[in-house]
Design brief:
Layout: H1 4-16, E1 21-26, H2 35-40, E2 43-50, H3 59-69, H4 71-75, E3 78-86, H5 88-94
Parallel strand pairs: 2-3
Antiparallel strand pairs: 1-2
């Protein structure tokens, strides 16, 4: 699948549209000996996303959008995914 980090980034942009911030962090090296990785394969990723698509949505609804965008990858290439999903106004308030 080539560079999985870039692939995840592209899939999220495709699903969510332009993002104010989209950072995909590959944390796989820190989990190389993890039992689940040995059994299932795949990597560990953390995504930080600021998107207008999240405005008015609950945290669970936001996560569902991300999981839907990465459904195929979650079945095989991605073992674990953590995420921070913010609307632009929330991100501006944290800055």
């Amino acid at each position: 699948m080539g560079d999985l980090r870039s692939h995840i980034h592209d899939r999220l942009v495709e699903a969510l549209g332009p993002c104010e911030l989209l950072d995909v962090i590959d944390q796989s090296a820190a989990h190389a000996g993890h039992a689940g990785v040995k059994e299932k394969g795949g990597g560990h990723f953390n995504v930080i996303i600021v998107s207008e698509r999240f405005t008015g949505l609950s945290p669970v609804a936001r996560q569902r959008l991300v999981y839907a965008a990465l459904a195929e990858e979650m079945r095989s290439a991605v073992h674990a995914l953590s995420m921070t999903c913010l609307a632009p106004a929330e991100y501006a308030a944290d800055a």
